[in-house]
Specification:
The chain is of the alpha/beta class and 378 residues long. The chain is 34% helix and 24% strand. GO terms for molecular function: nucleotide binding.
Length: 378
């Protein structure tokens, strides 16, 4: 079962969390809108490598140029005393430097995924956040949609769903020739994990979510699934995961070279759950999934049933705003009450990164199985 909803916040928590946006990547436009939708959050500043670019971002996204400060360097934004937290949509290769620098200046860190190029870099970020007593969260928006919580409740129902046995996730989108030549996600020095980091992150997170975040013991890239560009960046790949002493097996595939797909299937001993718009729901205000309980073949195997039950889960806010809302709640708890940061989100990010590292290692070793150290499960 999911954690219960948080208790109502004290009156003094009505002072909003002041966000600084560290970089003007395209995804930052989506988060700027999300921050504006959340009553307990506000955009205080935008930082870029040039002040003119920061001012252009403020103007193009309908922000108040008199109220939102434009900084011409990342350092200037981090030194802004009117910023409580940073949202960092920087290239993955820059995360370790700037997320750690933000934490060192007492800024809470909402970091785009993938969290880091490798677990060692993420460990440095998390250590900096821990030392400074600031909240860390990665930007996996789907985790905050109420649909995700409803699906968790169904999978956790041992009587109706049974024990999880198989999980499969498929994420892909067909990119343009210009993307393949120029996007940061195909440049080894900027986003060296390529498709594995950009969309494989979601596949891995969804699989870990389905098993209650227990790390697999063995990960192996799928032979024949890997495509790289000339710089060695992964454009498509897949992997399998196994858990020692368990009957669970999971697989995923991700690709920049196939049509748009966002599928997750979880099969239990008694039921099957499917979602076809996992990362970005087809609609902002409602997201669905299907579930079949105790299906069986018809006589002579000419059909089977019952038909899937379609479940729709409504939300007042889009998932990215719900993510900002939860992050802001945690920040206020630290800022206003002297509380400790919530450790769940750093732990989940670290496990996701550990699996990505193992997939990358398997790819680099010709799809050899890679064992994952289990200390993170404790």
């Amino acid at each position: 079962m999911e954690d219960p909803p948080p208790p109502p916040e004290p009156e003094h928590h009505h002072r909003p969390v002041r966000f600084g946006i560290l970089g003007c990547a395209a995804i930052a436009r989506k988060l700027a809108r999300a921050i504006r939708l959340v009553p307990g959050a506000t955009i205080a500043a935008v930082g870029s490598r040039s002040e003119s670019k920061a001012r252009r971002f403020i103007s193009e996204n309908g922000l108040d140029g008199a109220a939102v400060r434009a900084h011409g360097s990342y350092e200037a934004l981090l030194d802004d005393p009117g910023v409580d937290a940073v949202y960092a949509p920087l290239p993955t290769g820059l995360h370790a430097r700037w997320a750690a620098a933000a934490a060192a200046r007492g800024k809470h860190v909402l970091l785009e995924k993938p969290a880091a190029p490798c677990a060692a870099d993420l460990d440095a970020i998390l250590a900096a956040c821990d030392a400074a007593g600031v909240q860390f969260m990665d930007g996996t928006m789907l985790m905050h949609h109420p649909r995700t919580h409803e699906m968790r409740n169904i999978i956790a129902d041992k009587k109706a769903f049974g024990d999880v046995r198989m999980i499969n996730s498929v994420l892909s989108f067909r990119v343009s020739d210009d993307f393949l030549q120029n996007d940061i996600r195909v440049k080894p020095e900027l986003d060296g994990l390529g498709a594995l980091g950009d969309i494989g992150w979601y596949c891995v997170r969804a699989i870990l979510w389905a098993v209650g975040y227990e790390l697999p013991t063995t990960v192996a890239a799928l032979p024949g699934s890997v495509t790289k560009n000339d710089a060695g960046v992964v454009l498509a790949c897949g992997a399998s995961m196994r858990w020692a002493g368990s009957k669970v097996v999971a697989t995923f595939t991700c690709s920049f070279l196939a049509s748009l797909a966002m599928d997750l299937t979880v099969v239990g001993t008694n039921g099957t759950l499917r979602v076809t718009d996992l990362v970005i729901p087809l609609e902002e205000r409602s997201a669905g999934f299907s579930v079949v309980a105790t299906p069986a073949m018809a006589e002579l195997a000419v059909g089977w049933g019952p038909p899937p039950a379609e479940v729709a889960v409504a939300t007042d806010l889009p998932q990215e705003a719900l993510m900002v809302q939860e992050f802001a709640r945690l920040v206020r708890s630290v800022r206003d009450d002297g509380g400790r940061p919530e450790g769940k989100w750093p732990a989940i990010a670290r496990k996701t990164q550990a699996v990505l590292d193992a997939v990358k290692a398997s790819i680099d070793k010709g799809c050899e199985p890679i064992e994952i150290m289990q200390g993170l499960n404790n």
